[in-house]
Amino acid sequence: MTKIGVDTSVLVGLFDTKDVWHEQAVAPHTVLQSGNLEAVYFDCAIAEAISTLARRLHEKRRDAEFPVLLDQMQAQFPADVITWILPDVPFLYDEVVNLVRSSTGELNFNDALMALACRERDIPALASFDGDFDMISWLMRLASPEDVRQLLAASERSAPDESNDIPG
Asked: What is the pTM assigned to this prediction?
């Protein structure tokens, strides 16, 4: 099963029905859940999504919606389904900073950390609307259902054909 990381932009779009990316977030996420793919939810993306939702809803005077969205996020992403990568920071810190530097700041710290976490965990793709991930050579950015379908098709083509295996 192919693993796919999920970025903050997709998480925010999934939960905030008034977010500019809501429809675009729901479509690939639905395909992601229906295919032979496993979504990976990073702790820093969940934290960033909570912070982003809190700030945006407050700025738009939608404060009453925040507890409901937070409850929905917590129900969908309990601690045991989150991939905890922040403990990797001491080991990856120099690489994260170098990746931020090489992108001249286009990638922020969390984005660079997620990209490196994907590389370290053999996660080939990240569902994201952030085009800055396109500069990462080892990571495919998935922004549409078609992107997800293409990755799924490619992973199926590259899977070993066990029907021709000779036992023994």
From this structure: 0.87
